[in-house]
Design goal:
The chain has about 130 residues and is of the alpha+beta class. The chain is built from 4 helices and 9 strands. The strands form 2 sheets. It has a 6-stranded antiparallel beta sheet with strand order 1-2-3-9-8-5. It has a 3-stranded antiparallel beta sheet with strand order 4-6-7. The chain has a single domain, classed as Beta Barrel (OB fold (Dihydrolipoamide Acetyltransferase, E2P)).
């Protein structure tokens, strides 16, 4: 099930706009592809990121994978729970497993992101 209240990018990150913040995580497809997540290297708060830029790393039993920012902005908050419980991403990729939040968003960039229907169609090309 792909939540319809978010936008998506082709590297399998999702973004949910909440007021003047954007919550970012990886999709169910991404966490499933990675397997059991064992470590999350979170970005530093107040770091400036650009759309499509690498922000942090998620490691699993299978591989290490970069996490990319769907929008330009500044890291406002990180999900520090993931430092002790990285498996939250596997169990709840769209809720408790969020990775970071952005502030100072470039909201004009939102229009270029995929909605849930477009992301679902994109997933058909990934298998």
């Amino acid at each position: 099930m792909i939540p319809s209240d978010r936008k998506y990018i082709d590297s399998h990150e999702w973004i949910k706009i909440e007021g003047d913040l954007a919550v970012i995580g990886i999709t169910d497809y991404a966490q499933d592809s990675l397997g059991d997540i064992t470590f999350v290297e979170l970005p530093a708060v107040d770091t400036e990121v650009t759309k499509g830029g690498e922000c942090c790393v998620i490691e699993s039993v299978k591989a290490a994978s970069d996490v990319y920012s769907p929008l330009s902005g500044v890291i406002a908050e990180v999900n520090s729970t993931l430092e002790a419980e990285p498996e939250k991403i596997n169990a709840s990729p769209y809720e408790e497993g969020w990775v970071f939040k952005l502030k100072n968003l470039d909201t004009a960039e939102v229009d270029s992101l995929m909605d849930s229907a477009a992301y679902e169609k994109f997933l058909e090309t990934c298998e």
